[in-house]
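User: Last request for today: this protein with heme C, please.
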Amino acid sequence: MKKIVVVFFVLMLLAFAWSGTGQAGGWAVITLHELPQDVHAGEPVTVRFSVRQHGKHPMEGLETTIRASNGNRSLSVRGAESNQTGVYTATLTFPTAGEWAWSISAFTMDVPMPAITVGAPRTAFERLLASWRNAWGRHIPAAYAQDAPSSAAEGKRIFLAKGCWTCHHHAQVAGSFSTNNGPDLTTFAKDAEFLHAWLRNAEQLTKSRQEWWMPTLELSDNEIDALYLFLRADQ
Ligand code: HEC
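Assistant: Here's the final one, the structure of the complex with heme C:
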C-alpha cells in the first residue's frame, strides 16, 4: 500500500513538473536585442532582452537572472526592467578573458545564449583608441563602412539569441526545445527578399491566420542577412 502511495505522489510531481514546461502554457520567447561585440575583461557590458509569453505578450515585473561561466569561474547578475514593457537590461563584467557560456533565466525558462568571446583587458589608451574609431566610423558614408560580414555561423548564433528556436525546429540546432508552433526551418528554401519582408513584419503577416502567430522580433538588416545565410547554408 505504501508503495502505491509513493508512486502516486511521484506521478503527481511529474505531472506538476511537466505542466511547468512547454505545452501546458508556461513558456516564453526570450530575445536578445544585440549580441555583445568587442567584449573585454574588466569592462562592463550591458545586454538588453525581451520576454514574451507564448511569443505574444511582453511580460513585466519578472525576476530575471543572467548566469555566465568559464571553467570554474562564474558570475550571476539580476536583470532590471527598462522603461519599455517586457524589456530588461543587465550589466555584466567578465573578470577574465576566454570563451564564456551564459544563459538568461526569466519566467519558466533558462535559455542558453551563444557563447561570448571575452578579450584580454585593455589599457586606458586602447579603450580611447577604440572609442575614437567608433565615433569616426559614424562619419564614414554607409557605402564605405566596413560592417562585419554576415556569415552562416553568425546566423546560427542569431537563431539562438533571438529565440527563433523556441517555435521552429532546425536540424542544425542541437537539443533545441521547440513548441513547433512554426514550421520546421531545416529545409527553408525561399529567397532573401521573402525573409526580409517576413521578419520585418511577421506579426501583421501571421496574426489573423491562426492561434499561433509569429512576433516581429528585434532584428537589424545585417542580422537578417546572417539568418538567411544560415537558413540556406546547405542548399
Ligand atoms: C512565438 C513563435 C515564433 C517565434 C519565436 C518565431 N517564429 Fe517564425 N513562425 C511562427 C509561426 C506560427 C509561423 C507560421 C505563420 C503562418 O504561416 O501563418 C512562422 C513562420 C516563419 C517563416 C515562414 C516560413 C515559410 O516558409 O513560409 C519563417 C522564415 C520564420 N518563421 C522564421 C523565423 C525566424 C528567423 C525567427 C527568429 C528570428 C522566428 N521565425 C521566430 C512562429 C514563430
